[in-house]
Amino acid sequence: GIVSLISLAVLSYERYCTMTGTREADTTNYRKTWTGIVLSWTYSLVWTAPPLFGWSSYGPEGPGTTCSVNWHSKDANNASYIVCLFIFCLLIPFVIIVYSYGKLLCAVRQVSGINKGMGRTREQRILIMVVVMVICFLLCWLPYATVALIATFGKPGLITPAASIIPSILAKSSTVYNPIIYIFLNKQV
Q1: How far apart are CA 57 and CA 68, in angstroms?
Q2: How many CB atoms within 10 Å of residue 10?
Q3: Buried/exposed 105-136: b ≥16 CB within 10 Å, e otherwise
């Protein structure tokens, strides 16, 4: 899940850099692509490994069919890890996505002011893609993050195993939606 979130942030930033850059994109050089992939996986590993070394722990999630961070433990060790996950693996990627696509949209609007016909259509397609990306991101991950924070900081038993199933499935299925969004809403893919 974290790889998915970080990959979306890296991809949004890469699209911003590519579309607002002054040079033509080099489609034969995969160095930036591999760097983005390695950085996404490394960043994700940095944030998923701590429970293996004692900062929080992993355990059954919801009805016990999947494994995740132990959301129900109330100690400071666990709570600090969950707050860090929320900030560094949800909030920061979301800010990067909104910033990158917002700046990209501004750049496209400037270009469309010069070239009315083609620029306006391109601006509308990018706007639709940005809106769909942000909405899907929020629909997939915000319920899961909310349930996790309530389970961690709320009253014990407030989040039942049955209530945590749908947010968990939404978050974990986000990797399926992302390629669909890019394929159907981006003619360059």
Answers
A1: 9
A2: 22
A3: beebeeebeeeeeebeebbeebeebbebbbeb
Cβ-contact 49, 55 below 8 angstroms: no
Q: Which of 175, 181, 178 is nearest to 125 (CA)?
A: 181
**Residue 104 belongs to a domain with what CATH number?**
1.20.1070.10
- Written as six digits, the tokens of 171 are 């978050």
The amino acid occupying position 159 is I
Report pLDDT for 112: 63
Nearest CA to 125 out of 8, 10, 19, 25 is that of: 19
Domain count, the chain: 1
pTM of this structure: 0.77
What is the DSSP annotation of 73-136?
A: --SHHHHHHHHHHHIIIIIHHHHHHHHHHHHHHHHHHHHHHHSHHHHHHHHHHHHHHHHHHHHH
Phi, psi of 65, deg, nearest 5: -95, -15
Q: How far is CA 167 from the centre of its chain?
A: 15
Q: What is the largest CA-CA distance in the chain?
A: 59
Tell me the residue range of the domain where 51 lies.
Answer: 1-185
| pLDDT tens readout for residues 129-181 | 777 877 888 888 888 888 888 888 888 777 777 777 888 888 878 778 777 87
